[in-house]
Amino acid sequence: MGKIAKIEYFRVPPRWLFVKITDEAGNYGWGEASLEGHTQAVEGCLDAWIDRYLGFEADEIEHIWQMCWRTSFYRGGPVFMSALAGIDIALWDLKAKKLGVPIYQLLGGKVRDKLRVYAWIGGDRPSDVKEQAQARKAQGFTAVKMNATEDIGWLDSPTALEASVERLKTVKALGMDAGMDFHGRVHKPMAKQLAKALEPHHPLFIEEPLLSEHIGGIKALSQLTTCPIALGERLHSRWDVRPFLESQCVDILQPDISHCGGVSELKRIAAMCEAYDVAFAPHCPLGPIALAACIQVDATLSNFAIQEMSLGIHYNEGADLMSYVVDKGIWRIDGGYVELMPGVGLGIEVDEDAVRRASVDAKAWVSPGFIGPGREVREW
What we know:
Blueprint: E1 4-12, E2 16-23, E3 28-32, H1 39-53, H2 61-70, H3 78-99, H4 103-106, E4 114-120, H5 129-139, E5 143-147, H6 162-172, E6 177-181, H7 188-198, E7 205-207, H8 215-222, E8 229-231, H9 238-246, E9 252-253, H10 262-275, E10 279-280, H11 288-298, E11 307-308, E12 337-339, H12 352-359, E13 370-371, E14 377-378
Parallel strand pairs: 4-5, 4-11, 5-6, 6-7, 7-8, 8-9, 9-10
Antiparallel strand pairs: 1-2, 2-3, 4-12, 13-14
Helix pairs in contact: 1-3, 2-3, 9-10, 10-11
């Protein structure tokens, strides 16, 4: 046992928030509380919890999780759950390193030795996907994801969908699988058409075809298309996930470990999905700590499908996935897969000096936005 002696957080480029927890004996663990566009809000939550949880037993991860959840009265949401994720992941890393085992050994052990992964191509206004897909193929990927559309009106010209279909066909012609991210920016009048248009070309999945608050619309859409429907990055707990599973409108769940309360909650959500025959593909366009934590959980799941990674994603300006890890080759992609990391804890060594240097005067990332031709605000 060892009491928590210090909780620190570090804002680093491009848009990440790392957490370090150290106990009285000097054992430490790293977590990630990144919440794109809301860094300051998460930092405020962490400030309050730093004062509260100093002196708690670092080994009692579930007790601290339940304290955060049940004694705060106002529960859930992206800010609260991202702060909790940073603490939870760090505590799992600390405990596993202290015991000399990977986190997956504390979760029941692994059921696989390698995991399929995908990376992004294109950007918020996707173009030149053939060249980018070829580059990903050369890196060893067999699957990619891209935004399905640029910004789009509630009822736009059907011609706005044609480029999306052509991009999918272009990538498929290279022998690669492609997920199409609607990003919640496509509203129902257009989403129905786009799903049907993409269907003959067999996307790996269509992601967030509608915003998660429109569960009825997602259920109706799921009955109109054979495309696998993926969503979950804006669902922050098992309670948020439950109605989607019960309505049977999702085929692939994509919770984000940095937004849904960390290792503890991701594992619980995955178990719920297994009971509903729903595949699991964690959302992770974030940093190396979040990815490592995802992989530790993925290794233990029978219903794991594929893992997102942010290597070279268009948002990574000023730093990339490997910028803050010591071993720059920790995730070598071979045949579309990465090997499970053999190290203890998260399985990565964080370059603390690089983190501390980068955190000095680091600016918080601001979410982009779209403005339509009539000066109306559109979904990003």
